[in-house]
Design brief:
The complex is a heterodimer of chains A (about 230) and B (about 190). By secondary structure, chain A is mainly α. Chain A contains eight helices and no strands. Chain A is about 60% helix and about 0% strand. The chains are: A mainly alpha (about 230), B mainly alpha (about 190).
Chain lengths: ~230, ~190
């Protein structure tokens, strides 16, 4: 059986990869060749089928094994953010661990209070975004630009969320805005204090973890607040 | 820098650009935040797992999927954000899978021995009693054709990228794809 010389080119045709002159020639051929036309139709269906395949998650959760292998639950000391890169001015000012623990508790309380306030605000008909795993409800409004290092990326992400919030602050009631601002100030103060403490003890694992957690809390609060901004 | 009355000065950003919803978690994970990394895992594990399952189809799928995320954790410092995190992760996954195949010694001659095996993929129309679904038919493809088909038609890589990843000529990638499609067309639902 002699195979149609065009058969082997049909996938390239389907993918739009034939040179123009060949495409025209093939299209002329297809007008008179039912076999090739059927194959083209089938190939297109195969492509569509491939692109709609489902991706069910694994039947067993792989995370526990991954967590064990990466040491999740214990800080990765070698990969903790290099805070030395963030320091502009080196100061000899350290907080005691009890002081920082107290600050952390206070920060959690104040952030939690804000979330509670925002969650319970009947004046805002916008649902809260899930915390902490989900992106803002209006992700298209957030232009998160990664930067060559983690601290820059973090700053960019925070700035984008702040921009969304700033642009939408006129749509929120003044009490909500006031509370958000107060808590952002409190969190920024806590971050600054932790950074200053790390200036004196840069290798302190607790301080590094505490700082990372505080920075994460700021992002969470911003995500919550940005989600309150109605999408126009 | 702009002061917006929220107590924090913000950076100016380019007015356009694609949003990567994983960017924040990738940044946090790179700094050692395992919770952020778990969120990335939850988001991406279905697609990564699907890729592994389709590329390997052996008993090592769970282990290789774990390897991919462990490798991603180790390599997070190299993620620069030029592409979306998901894109970066999938390219890393492909590399881990291909390395695994090398380890298993399965990357031999599969691009030249494929034709004969392709003929053995049962046809739904010819033998209805042997019919199988599309995924099962994919598993029966010879490895070379299956790799190219999965990477091109399922994952969306271009032939040039596939050729680079697999060390093939672009023409070989195209011919393998066509052969895989021709075999699989027999298994379309009619």
């Amino acid at each position: 059986m002699i195979q149609d010389p065009w058969t082997d080119r049909l996938s390239e045709y389907v993918d739009g990869e034939l040179p123009e002159w060949e495409r025209h020639a093939l299209e002329s051929h297809l007008e008179s060749c039912a076999d090739c036309s059927l194959i083209v139709s089938d190939l297109r269906r195969v492509v569509r089928r491939a692109r709609t395949l489902k991706n069910p998650p694994p039947s067993t959760d792989l995370w526990p094994g991954i967590a064990a292998r990466i040491g999740a639950g214990t800080a990765k000391a070698p990969d903790v953010v290099d805070l030395s890169a963030q320091r502009r001015v080196r100061r000899r000012w350290a907080f005691s661990l009890p002081q920082l623990a107290a600050a952390g508790i206070a920060l959690m309380t104040v952030s939690g209070g804000t979330v509670w306030f925002l969650s319970g605000s009947a004046r805002q008909p916008v649902a809260l975004a899930p915390v902490p795993s989900s992106p803002p409800e209006n992700p298209a409004a957030v232009n998160v630009s990664m930067r060559p290092n983690a601290s820059q990326s973090y700053a960019a992400a925070v700035a984008d969320l702040e921009r969304v919030l700033a642009e939408g602050r006129g749509k929120l009631d003044t009490t909500t805005v006031k509370i958000i601002e107060q808590n952002l100030v409190a969190i920024d103060r806590a971050i600054a204090e932790a950074q200053r403490a790390l200036d004196a003890d840069s290798g302190n694992l607790y301080l590094n973890t505490h700082l990372a957690e505080t920075m994460r809390r700021k992002l969470d609060l911003l995500r919550q607040a940005a989600a309150l901004v109605p999408v126009s | 820098m702009t002061e917006l009355g929220l107590g924090v000065a913000i950076l100016e950003h380019e007015p356009t650009g694609r949003t990567d919803p994983d960017a924040v978690d990738a940044t946090l994970a790179a700094s050692g935040d395992a919770s952020a990394f778990e969120r990335l895992y939850r988001t991406h594990v279905p697609k990564v797992y699907g890729l592994v399952r389709r590329m390997l189809s052996d008993d090592d799928v769970d282990e290789v999927a774990q390897d991919i995320f462990v490798r991603a954790w180790q390599k997070l410092g190299t993620f620069r954000g030029e592409a979306a995190f998901g894109t970066w992760l999938h390219r890393l996954a492909v590399n881990v899978i291909l390395a695994r195949r090398e380890t298993l010694g399965t990357r031999r001659k599969r691009y030249v021995e494929g034709d004969m095996v392709l003929e053995t993929v049962p046809s739904r129309r010819a033998t209805p009693e042997m019919s199988m679904d599309f995924e099962a038919a994919m598993e029966r493809l010879p490895e070379g054709a299956r790799e190219v088909f999965v990477l091109h038609d399922v994952e969306g890589y271009r032939h040039e990228e596939i050729a680079e990843m697999l060390g093939l000529a672009t023409g070989t990638s195209k011919s393998q794809l066509h052969r895989a499609r021709m075999a699989l067309r027999q298994h379309l639902e009619r």
